[in-house]
Amino acid sequence: MAPKRKRSLTRSTLSPPFPWRWDVFLNFRGEDTRFNFTDHLYKKLRRTGIRTFRDDEGLERGGEIQPSLLKAIEDSSISVVVFSKNYAHSKWCLDELDKIMQSMEKGQLVLPVFYHVDPSDVRKQRGSFGEAFAGYGEVAEERVQRWKAALTKAGSLAGWHVEHGYESQIIKGIVRHISKKLISHPELLTIDDHLVGINSRLEEMSSLLCMESNDVRIIGIYGIAGIGKTTLAKGIYNQIAHQFEDASFLPHVAEAVERHGLLELQRQLLADILRENFVHISNIHEGISLIKKTLFSRKVLIILDDVSALTQLELLAGSHQWFGSGSRIIITTRDKHLLDGYGVDGLYEVQKLKVEEALQLFSLNVFKADFPDEGFWELSGHALNYCDGLPAALKVLGLFLRGKTELAWENALLKQQTVGDRRIQQMLRVSFDGLDSTEKDLFLDIACFFRGKDSDSVGRILDSCNFSANGMKVLKDRSLISILDNKIEMHDLMQKMGWEIIKEEFPGRPGKWSRLWNP
């Protein structure tokens, strides 16, 4: 069935995780500090090469805060708030502070400076801060409460109290601290240029991550091979890594363990966190001890990609107690059962793409556009039906067909005998190869005979053949099958892979195949 013709599609692009025009936004009361402390701080920041926004015109004007200032706050990595005697007498300052504290919830670093004021007066709105609020009777109560909440929260943050001593030394300390924070931002991970549907998935993951919580949270992402687990994990990393003291993304864990061993992965994890090229550990037990000792007091983001065994998790991220408050550990795997056994705080199953998303992703890889070229709509429909929403398959097939004629498309799609097809089958075969012999037999039986059948009836048949009831659960946990409305379902490409595996037993000799089916 050909996809519907052009309609409005929104390109799902991953929002840049560090979209900062400014390194620092300065929030201050002009009449108190514009020509002394704040001016000296601003000049020192600029001389150090730190891009700093200072509103030289607007802070003393009345009326609503300008949208350009709100945008400057959003576009800043760090906000420095200089609390002074008359700070709270400025509605403009308080509106800015409210916006700054909202930005802090999205990952912005907020650094307060208490300039000849007591931090407790800021927190509790006493002294000059209390006097200011006594004059806000005409201001809407909801707005006043936002100001008070922002002052209470900002006044509780660690910062600098300027009371005695040389201001120049305090300014040097502030600039040194900011420089270290800016340098420590983690490198972005490389992600495919053609991202479709990822923003909605990132939003769904946000509720599981609970970034506002200081608890340690471990989240599992699972789904079949090629569904987009790693891409999603990279997107999460790029969006939130800057909110942590340190971060590590360990790709292809199962493959890395097979090639280099778990000890090498422990070294890599520690090297990432400690920002060193090499960390010496002699054995995995020493590795466990050092990981726990190093990470216990740190707020870290760790992503373990493509995990295949519980042992890998036990030796890299043994429990919540290994990590500092606010840490987030994200695991991707094809095996939901592994996540259940480990004990994660949240589970996310990556679903196949919707038809509109699949069409867009396929078109981007074939035509470098959101829609197919004229003359290729019906053929693109065949491609979408074949790939059935699997992102990796859409990309592989799309790249294979790029630049080919309509006749070449027909041969490739109708006969399904292409290099692209073989690559897709090889990719999916990894999931099958991880099963034991009984589970493999069960998978092949379902691929040939039981897709779309009532799961209870199939269960009784399997019981009579001495198949363990646990086998169905294993296949379901590994996303090789699903149960919808009590019917056994399987991705088209998974079923086709099962057929190909049986054909490999005796190529071209169906009479000797272990199973015969009616496609």
Give the secondary structure arrangement, pairings included.
Elements: E1 22-28, H1 30-33, H2 37-47, E2 52-53, H3 67-74, E3 76-83, H4 91-105, E4 109-115, H5 119-124, H6 128-134, H7 141-155, E5 160-162, H8 167-183, H9 198-209, E6 217-222, H10 229-240, E7 246-250, H11 253-260, H12 262-274, H13 284-295, E8 300-304, H14 310-316, E9 328-333, H15 336-342, E10 346-349, H16 355-366, H17 377-387, H18 391-401, H19 406-415, H20 419-433, H21 437-450, H22 455-464, H23 470-477, E11 482-484, E12 487-489, H24 492-503
Parallel strand pairs: 1-2, 1-3, 3-4, 4-5, 6-9, 6-10, 7-8, 8-9
Antiparallel strand pairs: 11-12
Helix pairs in contact: 2-8, 3-4, 4-7, 9-10, 11-12, 12-13, 16-17, 16-18, 17-19, 18-20, 20-24, 21-23, 21-24
Family: Belongs to the disease resistance TIR-NB-LRR family.
GO biological process, one term: defense response to fungus
Domain TIR: 20-182
Any overview of this molecule?
It is found in: Cytoplasm; Nucleus. Residues 20-182 form the TIR domain. Its main location: cytoplasm. Keywords: Cytoplasm, Leucine-rich repeat, NAD, Nucleus, Plant defense, Repeat. The protein starts with 21 loop residues before the first strand and ends in a 16-residue tail after the last helix. The radius of gyration is 29 Å and the shape is elongated. It is of the alpha/beta class. It has helices spanning 30-33, 37-47, 67-74, 91-105, 119-124, 128-134, 141-155, 167-183, 198-209, 229-240, 253-260, 262-274, 284-295, 310-316, 336-342, 355-366, 377-387, 391-401, 406-415, 419-433, 437-450, 455-464, 470-477, 492-503; strands at 22-28, 52-53, 76-83, 109-115, 160-162, 217-222, 246-250, 300-304, 328-333, 346-349, 482-484, 487-489. It contains 24 helices and twelve strands.
